[in-house]
Design a protein that fits this description.
The chain has about 400 residues and is α/β, with parallel strands linked by helices. Helix content is about 35%, strand content about 15%. It contains twelve helices and twelve strands. The strands form two sheets. Strands 5-6-7-8-9-10-11-12 form an eight-stranded parallel beta barrel, surrounded by six helices. Strands 1, 2, 3 and 4 form a four-stranded antiparallel beta sheet that branches. Helix 2 packs antiparallel against helix 3 and helix 5 runs parallel beside helix 6. The longest helix is centred in the last third of the chain and has 18 residues. The two termini are about 35 Å apart. The N terminus is likely disordered.
Length: about 400
C-alpha cells in the first residue's frame, strides 16, 4: 500500500532504524516541518476491562477519554511533498515519545499536543455527553419526497412526526431533520421550500424537549430552524456552501457538525481523487475547524463528519472509515454517517438502500469501536440494539 520511504525530496532516501521505523533527522532537512507531514492514527485498539487495565498500567492511552476504549499502538504516517504517504510504521506511545524527544523540542511538543487531543475526554455537545458509554444514535428524518434512502417515507408533517416519535422511542438521542436531498446528482432546493418542510417538524419536536439538528447548507434555513428550536446545525458543506452560514452559526453560538465533501452534490461523484483520502479529509476538516475558531466558536460546539459517500469512491469510503481514529486528533466530537450508503451496496452486492441494514450495522459497529461519538442512521432501534450488545460483550 505504501511506497518505499523517501525523504523531503522526491529522490532522497529516509534514514531509518529498523524496517520500517520513524526516521531520524527527517524534520531537520531543509523545508521539512511536522505540520501537515506527520499524522498519528491510534491502532491496537482495546475494549472494556482490557482497555481500562492497560491505561492504568501505562500500556495504552484512552481513546478520546473513554474508560472502555484505549489504544496501545500508533500508526505514524509521514506524508511526502506530493501529499502521498511515504512511510507508515507502528510504534507504542512510549517509543513515539522517545523518537520525538530525539528530534528536538518542537517535534516533541507537536507530538505531545496530538497525543493529548487523541486521548482527552470530549466536552458535551449540544448538552449531550460524548464518550460516556455507547455512541449516541442520531435518527435521520428526511422530510423530502426524493431521499435516496427512504423514498419519501417521512415527507409530510404527519409522517415526519410519526417517524421521529418512533425513532425517539427506539433510543435515538437526537433527530436530524432535513428538507433537501443531497444524494449524488441532486439539484438544489429553494431555501423557502426547504424552510416550509423542516420548520414545522423541528418546532414540534423541540416543543417536546427533543434534541433536534437541522440538516442544511443554506443560511436562511439555518436561521429559521434555530428560531424554531433546533439546537444543532448539520451542514454537508461544513459552512462553505453559503457565504452567510459561518456568521449565522457563530452569532447564534449554535453547535455545528462540519462534514467533508469534495465538490457539491451534483458533481461530487465525478471521478473524485485524493493523494490520501483519510489524510486529505483530516486536513480539510482541520481548516474548517480553524475557520470556526477564528469566528469565535468554541470547541465544545464543534463536531466533524468525514462525509462517507460525499465525493468518494468505494475504496475512499472504506479507507476513511478504517482510519476513523485519525479524526480524534482534531480534538472535537466525531460523527459517522454510513447508513444505507451506496458503498455498502457495492461491497455486499445489495442494490436497494432499505436492504442494506446488515451492512449499515456493521459500519456503525466499526465506527463505534473506533471511538465515534455519534452514528447517524435510518434504522434506530436495530442500531441501538447492536451497540448495546456489542458493548455488553466488550465489558463482560
Amino acid at each position: 500500500m505504501f511506497a518505499p520511504p523517501k525523504g523531503p525530496g522526491s529522490d532522497a532516501p529516509v534514514p531509518t532504524i529498523g524496517s520500517p521505523a520513524l526516521p531520524r533527522g527527517f524534520f531537520h532537512a531543509e523545508g521539512a516541518s511536522p505540520a501537515g507531514r506527520l499524522y498519528l492514527q491510534p491502532v491496537g485498539l482495546l475494549d472494556g476491562q482490557a482497555a481500562a487495565q492497560a491505561v492504568v498500567e501505562g500500556l495504552a492511552l484512552p481513546l478520546a477519554g473513554r474508560a472502555d476504549h484505549a489504544f496501545c499502538l500508533i500508526a505514524a504516517l509521514l506524508r511526502g511533498a506530493a501529499g502521498d504517504v511515504i512511510l507508515r510504521c507502528l510504534v507504542s506511545p512510549a517509543a513515539l515519545r522517545q523518537w520525538a524527544a530525539s528530534e528536538g523540542a518542537g517535534i516533541a511538543a507537536e507530538v505531545e499536543a496530538v497525543l493529548a487531543r487523541l486521548s482527552a475526554p470530549r466536552r458535551p455537545f449540544a448538552g449531550l455527553p460524548l464518550g460516556r458509554g455507547n455512541a449516541l444514535v442520531m435518527g435521520i428524518l428526511n422530510v423530502t419526497p426524493d431521499s435516496f434512502s427512504d423514498g419519501g417515507d417521512h415527507a409530510g408533517f404527519a409522517a415526519a412526526l410519526a417517524g421521529g416519535q418512533a425513532m425517539l422511542a427506539a433510543g435515538a438521542a437526537l433527530l436530524d431533520v432535513g428538507g433537501e436531498s443531497t444524494r449524488p446528482g441532486a439539484a438544489p432546493v429553494d431555501p423557502q421550500d426547504e424552510i416550509a418542510r423542516v420548520v414545522p417538524v423541528i418546532r414540534a419536536f423541540a416543543e417536546r424537549g427533543a434534541v433536534v439538528s437541522v440538516d442544511t447548507r443554506n443560511a436562511s434555513t439555518m436561521e429559521a430552524a434555530l428560531a424554531a428550536g433546533a439546537r444543532i446545525v448539520n451542514d454537508v458543506t461544513a459552512l462553505t456552501g453559503d457565504e452567510r452560514a459561518l456568521g449565522v452559526v457563530a452569532r447564534a453560538r449554535a453547535p455545528v457538525i462540519l462534514m467533508h465533501i469534495r465538490g457539491e452534490p451534483r458533481t461530487m461523484q465525478s471521478d473524485p481523487s485524493y493523494a490520501s483520502a483519510p489524510l486529505d479529509v483530516v486536513d480539510w476538516l482541520a481548516e474548517r475547524l480553524a475557520c470556526c475558531r477564528a469566528a469565535g466558536m468554541d470547541d465544545g460546539d464543534l463536531c466533524v463528519d468525514p462525509g462517507i459517500g460525499f465525493g468518494k469512491t468505494v475504496d475512499h469510503n472504506l479507507e476513511v472509515l478504517e482510519a476513523t481514529t485519525l479524526l480524534h486528533g482534531l480534538g472535537v466530537g466525531v460523527l459517522i454517517g454510513a447508513s444505507r450508503k451506496s458503498f455498502i451496496g457495492r461491497v455486499a452486492d445489495v442494490g436497494t438502500p432499505k436492504a442494506r441494514l446488515p451492512g449499515s450495522l456493521a459500519a456503525a459497529l466499526a465506527a463505534a469501536r473506533r471511538g465515534a461519538d455519534i452514528v447517524r442512521v435510518h434504522d434506530v432501534g436495530e442500531t441501538v440494539q447492536a451497540l448495546r450488545v456489542a458493548a455488553a460483550i466488550e465489558n463482560a
